[in-house]
Design brief:
Blueprint lengths: L54 H11 L12 E10 L17 E10 L14 E9 L2 E8 L12 H8 L15 H9 L4 H8 L13 E2 L4 E4 L5 E10 L8 H10 L3 H11 L5 E10 L5 E2 L2 E2 L15 E10 L4 H6 L12 E2 L4 H17 L47 H4 L31 H9 L2 H16 L4 H14 L1 H11 L30
Antiparallel strand pairs: 1-2, 1-11, 2-3, 3-4, 5-7, 6-7, 6-12, 7-8, 8-11, 9-10
Helix pairs in contact: 2-3, 3-12, 4-10, 11-13, 12-13
The structure holds protoporphyrin IX containing FE.
Family: Belongs to the catalase family. HPII subfamily.
Cofactor: heme
Catalytic activity: 2 H2O2 = O2 + 2 H2O
Length: about 550
């Protein structure tokens, strides 16, 4: 028995057998015994007590009692679809990743989500949206786990529990359930001012998309591409919707929330059923991989910063099409498990401290959410590349592993496949130099600038977009109970732009403070406005 035959979780490009659970014309127990009656329990006489002996009754009720699994700790509310990705080949010189080569077609599964609401919350709330795509490439799974905003609230993943605690409903009242209008959120972002840029995106029209089909997506962090010679380039990933970016007005969103809380979920499902398949172009902004990891003075490792498209245009490298709805929401949408560390050969991570923490967090949470270490054997998570991983046993083990030597090299089960083969198409950690300086907890000085890009975003908005932003801040801050928090947030707005601050202060009936630091001298980026965005040509 050669070790190559030991496949734990599915074979190349083989679709999982999802129908297996419902075979045959007869109703059966879970072990296949045919049932005569599933409507009446076994009793001691027609009016007597129910008998413990009724195995079918106990199996049916017990299974029902355990139907629910924990919802995701964030991004609990979502909807997803299957589709395919086609590479243009335009990134071939930068990366060996095969799925990006010209004409290569790769199956995908994309899940969109809100961040803060629970699984049953409404769709059209003001929030960031998740945009996570699993590419089932022939070289192993690639997960691009992004959002519909290009920046994040915090610069270091160690603060992730804190920002989420601040954003989730208040521990005492459990309100608000899915919106940012509360004291703890504004308390957090006015004290951790690195969050101001992302908060401004939330207050803009981007916070309430018209449809998942009309959202941009961003990898947020800077990633590293690796070419055939081992040369490296830094990139930021962008998804650009072919339908353009569109949003709901706040009143529309409020109204739809009441009439149809499933609005985005329904929209995605119905569009696909009608054959109006949503499409996005995948693009990259490209930067030299130099020692500083900065571009035009922007720190590429700081996830609260974007690089304006005017400085680094987005180059299209492929196209995503979603053309099939899930057959079973639980099996697919609930059980899918993304991980930013699922990378194919040719793509690697950078030292962004937020990304580094994510690499730890996702697998950890999925261990409890999906009940143990074998969740990559669940059909929706199965790689389409052959798997030979030496991982064994554990809860919910589905593989029937052969052989006696799950270690490499060995002399019993066919030796060592990766040493016997070539190094082609293997994931290789890029040998980047790791800093030789002493261990520190402090951020680099370049992380200290918290307001210049929020100002850049504000200055890039059209008048109507600015008006929406002012209304959003006024509404959301107006819901805070504590005046001190409103005033501290107004101080942050003063440091972004005095007009924005004055308008919101007037709406709140509070005095507008003066800026506490000089206003950044930044050029607007017209591409950030939804009215000016750059979209795929067709
Ligand atoms: C889930 C994006 C930062 C922890 C998700 C999902 C997305 C996402 C799209 C939903 C995945 C799905 O649909 O199943 C992002 C982005 C981030 C970010 C773009 C920053 C740029 C973080 C950080 C942490 C974190 C810093 C922790 C240190 C989690 C966890 C889940 C999650 C625990 C739930 C995963 C699951 O239960 O399957 N994130 N996230 N995220 N994220 Fe993040």
């Amino acid at each position: 028995r050669g070790a190559e035959t030991v496949t734990a979780t599915g074979a190349a490009t083989e679709a999982p057998d999802r129908a297996r659970a419902q075979q045959g014309a007869h109703l059966t127990t879970s072990t296949g015994t045919r049932l005569r009656d599933t409507d009446h329990s076994l009793k001691a006489g027609s009016r007597g007590p129910t008998l413990l002996q009724d195995h079918h009754l106990r199996e049916k009720i017990t299974h029902f009692d355990h139907e629910r699994i924990p919802e995701r700790v964030v991004h609990a509310r979502g909807a997803a679809a299957h589709g395919y990705f086609e590479g243009y080949g335009t990134a071939s010189e930068l990366t060996v990743a095969k799925f990006l080569q010209e004409g290569v077609r790769t199956p995908v599964f994309t899940r969109f989500s809100t961040v803060l609401g629970s699984r049953g919350s409404a769709d059209t709330v003001r929030d960031t949206r998740g945009f996570a795509t699993k590419f089932y490439t022939d070289e192993g799974t690639f997960d691009l786990v992004g959002n519909n905003m290009p920046v994040f609230f915090i610069q270091d993943g160690i603060k992730f529990p804190d920002v989420i605690h601040a954003g989730k409903p208040h521990p005492d009242r459990e309100i608000p359930q899915a919106q940012s209008a509360h004291d703890t959120f504004w308390d957090f972002v006015s004290l951790h001012t690195e969050g101001q840029h992302h908060a401004l995106w939330n207050m803009s029209d981007r916070g309430i998309p018209r449809s998942y089909r009309m959202m941009e997506g961003f990898g947020v962090h800077t990633f590293r591409l690796v070419d055939a010679e081992g040369g490296t380039t830094l990139v930021k990933f962008h998804w650009k919707p072919v339908l353009g970016v569109h949003s709901l007005d706040w009143e529309e969103a409020q109204f739809i929330n009441g009439v149809d809380p499933d609005f985005h979920r329904r929209d995605l499902y119905d569009a696909i059923e009608a054959g109006a398949y949503p499409q996005w172009e995948l693009g990259i902004q490209v930067f030299p991989d130099n020692e500083e990891q900065q571009f035009e003075g922007i720190d590429l490792l700081d996830p609260t910063k974007l690089v304006p498209e005017e400085l680094a245009p987005v180059q299209a490298i492929g196209r995503l099409t979603l053309d099939a709805n899930p057959k079973n929401f639980f099996a697919e949408v609930e059980q899918v498990a993304f991980h930013p560390g699922h990378l194919p050969p040719g793509i690697d991570v950078t030292n962004d401290p937020l990304l580094q923490a994510r690499l730890f967090s996702y697998i950890d949470t999925q261990l409890s959410r999906l009940g143990g270490p074998n969740f990559n054997q669940i059909p929706i998570n199965r790689p389409h590349a052959p798997v030979n991983d030496m991982l064994r046993d554990g809860f919910h083990q589905h593989a029937d592993h052969e052989g006696v030597a799950p270690y490499k090299p060995n002399s019993l089960d066919g030796g060592c496949p990766f040493m016997a083969g070539t190094m082609e198409a293997t994931f290789a950690d890029v040998p980047v130099r790791v800093s030789e300086s002493t261990k520190v907890r402090e951020n680099p000085a370049s992380f200290d600038d918290h307001f210049s890009q929020a100002r850049l975003f504000w200055l890039s908005m059209s008048p109507v977009e600015k008006e929406h932003i002012i209304r959003a801040y006024t509404f959301e801050l107006g819901k805070c109970y504590e005046d001190a928090i409103k005033q501290r947030q107004l101080q942050c707005l003063a440091n972004i732009d005095p007009v924005l601050c004055q308008e919101v202060a007037t709406g709140l009936g509070l005095p507008a403070p003066e800026p506490t630091e000089p206003l950044a001298d930044v050029a607007p980026s017209p591409a950030l406005s939804q009215l000016n965005g750059t979209w795929p040509a067709d």
